[in-house]
Amino acid sequence: MKYWVEKDPVKKAQIQEEYLANGLEDHLEVLQAHLTSYGKGKYFAPSGVTFADFWIANLLYSIEERLPTALDQHPVLKEYVQRIHDLPGIREWVATRPQT
Questions:
Q1: Is the pTM higher than 0.85?
Q2: Does residue 44 contact residue 35 with C-beta atoms inside 8 Å?
Q3: Residues 97, 95: Cα–Cα separation, whole Å
């Protein structure tokens, strides 16, 4: 929460780095446990793919872009991102989207 309300860009960067170094792993463990138990390793909802899957896959992709080894200890999440990116329509968008 501090990250979103911090106005000073230097402090904001420090807050982000601290989270990536100290809090990210705990959150990845929770996501992987939830995906494995509730979504049976495929999607976050047992009924199938939902908007939440697109949002979470994008978040995980962004994290991995910034920290390439972030998902190395979470193979279920790594496979999940690939599964979402391989969905029809999403695959094409990922291949042609602008890199920002």
A1: no
A2: yes
A3: 6
End-to-end CA distance of the chain: 24
Contact (Cβ atoms closer than 8 angstroms) between residue 61 and residue 55: no
Among residues 65, 84, 78, the alpha carbon closest in space to that of 93 is found at 84
> How confident is the model over 44-80, as pLDDT tens digits?
998 999 999 999 999 999 888 888 888 999 999 999 9
Residue 54's alpha-carbon distances to 9, 35, 43, 94, in angstroms, are 29, 14, 10, 12
* CB atoms near residue 44 (< 10 Å): 17
What gap in Å lies between CA 65 and CA 38, rounded to an integer?
Answer: 27
The conformation of residue 59, written as its DSSP 8-state character, comes to H
Closest by CA to 76, choosing from 27, 9, 10, 29, is: 29
d(CA 85, CA 37): 21
Half-sphere exposure of 96 (CA within 13 A, CB side): 5
